[in-house]
Design brief:
Blueprint lengths: L1 H11 L2 H12 L4 H37 L2 H19 L3 H8 L7 H5 L1 H15 L3 H26 L4 H29 L6 H26 L18 E2 L11 E8 L2 E8 L2 E6 L13 E3 L2 E3 L6 E3 L5 E3 L8 E6 L5 E5 L3
Antiparallel strand pairs: 1-10, 2-3, 3-4, 4-9, 5-6, 6-7, 7-8, 9-10
Helix pairs in contact: 2-3, 4-9, 5-8, 7-8, 7-10, 8-9, 9-10
């Protein structure tokens, strides 16, 4: 699938460049054009391929540069994780609010659009000679950056490994960017005769903001941080056999890890009442079958997200998405069969 997608993407950039050349070769009577078309097509393709490779090389260089910061980002990230965990543990509802459990969407991802837009307006206003608009937009952008930082810290508390290292670089760059914008704002507040210096500082801040935002975007698009782990899982309209393995029947209590087709389920049984959710936590892929039961919910052993067993609804963060839940019934041929519930 990845190779096919890459091929489609690569081809989609070429029709406009190649259509005229290839058409020339196909028109009857254009013998000379047809003779030259082969070399022309190869030349155009080399240009297109080199441009695509240069673009992908930029991404590789940025990724290598970010990964190279692990020498300081790893210990700094571990330090931050410790104090953030201690900070948010006694105020779990506040963290859930900052994560976006109530919204069903990461709050940080939505808030980060505000400073980028505000700082863009500020630069444009500076360039067209609208100092008041530029200064107000920059002030709003700085306030939005603070809000984005607070929501980002809530997300940051739950990442680990390479994602934490990259998030540390992202966050550090954002703090530096915020400091640069504050310097520009202080100079602007003094009503200087010449605004050249604060404008130039603002442009530097915008470049840093763009780089930090790109690294933050890679946390989602490259690593998959805070992506719903069941985003590509089909709704399932058919009943599927529940495989019991070495078990003769679904055991009492639970959660018990069982399999239905390619899906692994966390199954809980209380007499004739049998409930099941997918065994992979929607938040970060934690093993729900190794979790614990809390009332009518199952709790993930990794980050403590809770999902209601009856319908998979998210009742506690840091998860922002519901968990796939499954109906279970006796099969006519014996045994059990399951089907995913409608969302």
């Amino acid at each position: 699938m990845i190779q096919n997608t890459a091929t489609i993407h690569r081809q989609s950039g070429r029709p406009g460049l190649l259509a005229g050349v290839e058409a020339a070769a196909s028109v009857g009577g254009w013998d000379m054009a047809a003779k030259r078309s082969g070399s022309d097509i190869r030349r155009v393709r080399r240009v297109v391929d080199s441009g695509e490779e240069e673009a992908s090389m930029i991404g590789r260089y940025v990724n290598r540069a970010v990964d190279a910061q692990a020498r300081w980002s790893k210990p700094f990230g571990e330090f931050n994780h410790r104090w953030l965990t201690a900070l948010f543990r006694p105020i779990r509802p506040v963290k859930d609010f900052l994560d976006g459990t109530w919204l069903g969407h990461p709050v940080h991802a939505a808030v980060t659009d505000v400073p980028v837009g505000a700082m863009t307006v500020s630069i444009v206003a500076d360039l067209i000679g609208q100092p008041l608009v530029a200064d107000v937009a920059m002030l709003l952008g700085v306030l939005a950056m603070v809000a984005a930082a607070v929501t980002g810290l809530a997300d940051y508390a739950d990442v680990d490994g390479n994602a934490r290292n990259r998030a540390t670089v992202h966050g550090t760059l954002m703090v530096v960017t915020l400091a640069v914008y504050l310097v520009s704002l202080v100079i602007r507040a003094g009503n200087p005769v010449s605004r050249t210096i604060p404008i130039l500082i603002g442009i530097v801040g915008y470049l840093l903001l763009s780089l930090a935002a790109a690294i933050g975007g890679d946390l989602v698009y490259l690593i998959g941080t805070h992506v719903n782990r069941h985003a590509w899982r089909g709704a399932g309209a058919k009943w599927i056999k529940l495989e019991l393995g070495d078990l003769t029947d679904i055991p009492e209590g639970g959660p018990t890890k069982l399999k239905a087709g390619i899906n692994e389920l966390a199954v809980v049984r209380e007499g004739d009442r049998i409930l099941a959710v997918h065994a992979q936590c929607a938040h970060a892929g934690g093993p729900l079958a190794e979790g614990s039961l809390v009332g009518d919910a199952i709790e993930c052993p990794w980050h403590g997200s809770r999902f209601r067993l009856a319908n998979g609804h998210n009742v506690r963060g840091p998860a922002m998405y519901d968990q796939p839940a499954y109906d279970i019934r006796r099969a006519e041929a014996g045994g059990w069969e399951v089907r995913r519930q409608a969302s």
